Amino acid sequence: MTRTEEFEELRPLLFSVAYRILGSVSEAEDAVQETWLRYELSPARPASARAFLSAVVTRVSIDVLRSARMRREEYVGPWFPEPLLTDPYEDPEQSAELADSLSMAALLLLERLSPLERAVFVLREVFAFGFPEIASAVGRSEAACRQLAVRARRHMDAGRPRFEADRKEREELAERFFEALREGNVDGLRELLAADVSLVGDGGGKAPQWARGFFGVGQVSQMLATLFPPFFRIGGVVDPHQVNGQPGALFRDRDGKVLNTWTLDILGGQIQAIRTVSNPDKLGHLGPVADAWAVLRETQQVRPDPE
C-alpha cells in the first residue's frame, strides 16, 4: 500500500480526532492536511501508519487549539462548535462513545479542559487508544497521561450531558417540534419544551442573534411561535437533519441557501436545550450561505402588527 493509500484509509479517523479536539470543521481539515504534508516529508516509513498519523494530527491539533482559545475569548456572544452533519469515522465497538462525544453539549464541556486534557480524553475515552500511544502523541509520560485522563474524566462526568437512548423517539419528538414551529402552535411547542428550556444562538457578531438567549418554556415558545410562521410564509425551509449526532435541522432561505443549524437536546421526552449556529464563517462547509440579515428584514415585513 502506498503512503497516499494509507493516508486516505486513515483520513476519517484523523479528521474525527482533530474535530473533537478543535470543535471546528475547517481547523480539523487544516490539521489533517498538515498531517499529510508531514507524513509525505517523513524520510522513513513508520512501523504503524495509524499510530504515527494519529500522533501527528493530535500534536497539530493541540497547537492550533492553544491559539484558537485566545481568539475564542474575544468572540462576540456565545461560542459553539462548527456544526457537523456526518462523522466520517465509524467503529461499531466505539459507536456509543463516538456519538456521545460529537454532541454540542459534549463539545462545549470539552472546551473547559486544557488542550492536553482534551487530547488525552479524546484519544482514550472516545477512540480507545492505549496509554503508550497517547504518551507518544502528546509528548508526556504514560503516568502523566493517566493523571490527565483521570482529571479530564472527572470534569466531563460532572457535567456530562444525558440524552434519550431511543433514537427513534428523539427523531419523532423533533419532527413534532418542527411541525409545531411551522404552524406557530404555541400550545404544541409548550408541550414539547422542558420548563427550564434554553434557546441560545451563536452568530459571532456576523448574523442576527439573540442577545443572551431565551430561557423558560413561556419565553421560548412565545418567541418561536411569533417569529417563525412569517419566516415560512416568505419561503423559508426547515430541513430536519442529524446535527452533531443529535436531532436538529438546517434552516434555509427560499433559494436553498443555509441560514443556520439547530440542535435539540432531548431528555425525559422533552427538549431541554436548543442551540443554533448562524455565524456564516461556520456554515460554509454545509453549502452556499444565505444573507441572514436580508431574510430577517423580509420576515419582519410580513409579521402581523401587534394588536
Give the helix tally: 12
Q: How far apart are the termini? A: 71 Å
Number of domains: 2
The chain-level mean pLDDT equals 92
Unreliable runs, pLDDT <50, ≥5 residues? Answer: none
Subunit structure: Interacts transiently with the RNA polymerase catalytic core formed by RpoA, RpoB, RpoC and RpoZ (2 alpha, 1 beta, 1 beta' and 1 omega subunit) to form the RNA polymerase holoenzyme that can initiate transcription.
GO cellular component, one term: DNA-directed RNA polymerase complex
Keywords: DNA-directed RNA polymerase, Sigma factor, Transcription, Transcription regulation
Protein name: DNA-directed RNA polymerase sigma-70 factor
Describe this structure in words.
The protein has 307 residues and is an alpha+beta fold. It folds into two domains: 157 residues, Butyryl-CoA Dehydrogenase, subunit A, domain 3, CATH 1.20.140; 136 residues, Nuclear Transport Factor 2, Chain: A, CATH 3.10.450. Helix content is 54%, strand content 14%. It contains twelve helices and six strands. It has a six-stranded mixed beta sheet. A hairpin with a 2-residue loop joins strand 5 and strand 6. The mean pLDDT is 92.
Task: Supply database-style keywords.
307 residues; alpha+beta; Butyryl-CoA Dehydrogenase, subunit A, domain 3; Nuclear Transport Factor 2, Chain: A; 2 domains; six-stranded mixed beta sheet; 12 helices; 54% helix; 14% strand
